Description:
Elements: E1 4-7, H1 11-22, E2 35-39, H2 40-51, H3 61-72, E3 75-77, H4 81-86, H5 97-109, E4 113-114, E5 127-128
Amino acid sequence: MDTKVNVHEAKKHLSKLLQRVINSESFIIAKGSNEIFLSAASAWEIAIEVAKGRLTLPEPPDQYLADRMRLHRFSALPIELGHALEVNRLPDIHQDPFTRLLIAQSQLEDIPLLTTDPKIHRYQVEAIW
């Protein structure tokens, strides 16, 4: 059975994980038969972190993410109006708007969320990590 995974790293861990990847460390995050999604919300957050100088990538974010998504065969998960509106129904556990949007996407699309953020487990969402 294929598993769809919405790839997400909490903001406080994202730059550390990407830096480890840049340093050529390998991470196995799924078997080859699984479909893995990168949310537009995560791409948006990465672009902001790079623009603010809090994340350094070897290439511009658009090129870096496109190349990595192609290389690892990740699929893009767009932000739909329903995703954005679902954020309103979430309990007020997490304050980060990107994380809240990812939780809403995970719930509405019925896909697990890959995260190290312990607060995610307090929502009605399947979290993997």
